[in-house]
Amino acid sequence: MRKPGIKKIAATAIFLIGAISSSAQNSSKNEFVKYVNPLIGTQKMGHTFPGATVPFGMVQLSPDTDTLQYLEAGKYNPEMYRYCAGYQYDDKSIVGFSHTHFSGTGHSDLGDFLIMPTVGELKLNPGVASVPRSGYRSAFKHANEKAGAGYYAVQLDDYNVKAELTATERVGFHQYTFPQTKEAHIILDLVHGIYNYPEKNVWTFVRVENDTLITGYRQTLGWARTKTVYFALSFSKPIESYGCTNDKKEMYRGFWGKFNQKAWGKIKIKQGLKFKQVPDALIKKALQTIDADSYLQTLEKVIKKKLAQITEKDPYKRRYKLQQYALSRGYEADLILDVLKNSDL
């Protein structure tokens, strides 16, 4: 393998490598967490995302189902408004899984650091929904999709890859179960975004620290002007090879790597985010101390504890308290609204 190098690119990153396990345990019938359904609000103008997050979390790891541009033929593209949260329930394909999302807003931004597992020919463009297999996006079915409290899973039909996601406050966990193949890839797209438009990406940077760790950042001009997000990303398997492309004809150009999955297997990814630049050693240390398997065992307990703070017996007062709690504490809005819509409160 080549020595670690530095690439300043406008960029797509693709790595080849090999998972996150099981979803949260079933709760008793008296606990609110059983009512959580993050898919509520993901159709039409609901503007919510179905992916994994925790209360007050900086990471909202969720699928994005299209890559529409803010401008079309020099004019505002009204279809873009449907993608405030990156996901539309009626779509038939997934572009990838990005780490930051707004929920329930009438405007949008974010969609930082999209990751997509692929198998077969290397493609550096997401393609378009109207032309299946035109890029690295993949078809999926809701029958093979699962969304719960802090957990999301889906089968990517075009690649026969199972994707599973969860998150802590600042780290996104990915687990991808690949079939046997010599052409397994992980794509890290640094220029993907929600409400994208020309020159939104001011600067992107990625550095290969070693064969299992990369670091970098990107700076964008969006709702938050001159927003810089830093990251460190670790793989459970070493990168076999990597490269980059800087072809301006490519909509999403950048960095790529390749893996040889000699048998069915899982690739686990941990990606930590921060808005303030700190020594890389601190991020690396933080990623090393987090284990997704053990974390999933405690995640549902955290969410249950938050919901348990709502103790009002009267059903109407309880509904009011749930709504006020969501508004006054900045609580993950999807989770509270799902409780209201799915329970008999």
Comma- or semicolon-separated keywords:
4 helices, 345 residues, disordered C terminus, Beta-galactosidase, Chain A, domain 5, alpha+beta, 31% strand, single chain, 14% helix, 5-stranded antiparallel sheet
Write the layout of secondary structure elements.
Elements: E1 6-7, E2 12-15, E3 62-64, E4 71-72, E5 75-76, E6 93-94, E7 96-98, E8 114-119, E9 138-139, E10 145-148, E11 151-156, E12 161-167, E13 171-178, E14 181-189, E15 201-210, E16 213-220, E17 227-235, E18 241-244, E19 255-261, E20 265-274, H1 280-288, H2 292-307, H3 315-329, H4 333-342
Antiparallel strand pairs: 1-15, 2-14, 3-7, 4-5, 6-9, 8-14, 10-11, 11-12, 12-13, 13-20, 14-19, 15-16, 16-17, 17-20, 18-19
Helix pairs in contact: 3-4
How would you sum up this structure, described in words?
The protein is of the alpha+beta class and 345 residues long. The chain has one domain (6-308): Beta-galactosidase, Chain A, domain 5 (Distorted Sandwich). It contains four helices and 20 strands. It starts with 5 loop residues before the first strand and ends with a helix.
What is the domain tally? 1
Instruction: Give the terminus-to-terminus CA distance.
Output: 59 Å
Please write the string of helix (H) and strand (E) elements: EEEEEEEEEEEEEEEEEEEEHHHH
CATH topology title: Beta-galactosidase, Chain A, domain 5
CATH class: Mainly Beta
Number of strands: 20
